[in-house]
């Protein structure tokens, strides 16, 4: 699951940036460009762990050293006064 998320989000960002580059100046055109694709792809990077953290988790799982210690997201948000 973690590997799938990592590959999917990194590939989405790479593909969206490639599309933007491929289109040249049109790539950043608000109507025909790929800027929205880049934005959508970037939105997938943080949820369910950033790529850096997921690479670390994958290494820890492979080494048998993974222990989930992070509290649920809604608890973190509430503690930081972001939600609730
Ligand atoms: C649109 C959106 C929806 C979300 N939905 C959910 C949800 O439904 N449920 C949920 O649980 N969470 C959700 N999240 C939270 C998301 O999981 C966190 O944003 C993500 O895990 C990163 O945590 P953070 O924002 O606290 O950044 P931080 O952990 O502060 O990370 C900041 C930077 O430091 C790097 N970093 C942090 N620790 C390490 C490390 N040990 N080694 C190397 N680099 C590190 C990160 O890669 C990142 O570049 C959502 C986030 C977004 C943006």
TrEMBL record:
Q: Extract the Gene3D superfamilies matched here.
A: Butyryl-CoA Dehydrogenase, subunit A, domain 3
Alphabetic keyword roster: Flavoprotein
Q: Which Pfam families match?
A: Acyl-CoA_dh_1
Task: Please state every residue range assigned to the domain named Acyl-CoA dehydrogenase/oxidase C-terminal.
Answer: 3-61
Q: What's a single GO MF annotation on this record?
A: oxidoreductase activity, acting on the CH-CH group of donors
Q: What is this protein called?
A: Acyl-CoA dehydrogenase/oxidase C-terminal domain-containing protein
- Species this chain originates from: Gandjariella thermophila
């Amino acid at each position: 699951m973690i590997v799938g998320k990592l590959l999917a989000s990194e590939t989405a960002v790479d593909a969206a940036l490639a599309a933007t580059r491929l289109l040249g100046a049109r790539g950043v055109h608000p109507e025909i460009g790929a800027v929205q694709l880049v934005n959508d792809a970037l939105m997938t990077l943080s949820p369910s762990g950033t790529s850096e953290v997921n690479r670390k988790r994958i290494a820890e799982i492979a080494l048998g050293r993974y222990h989930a210690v992070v509290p649920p997201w809604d608890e973190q948000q509430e503690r930081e006064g972001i939600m609730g």
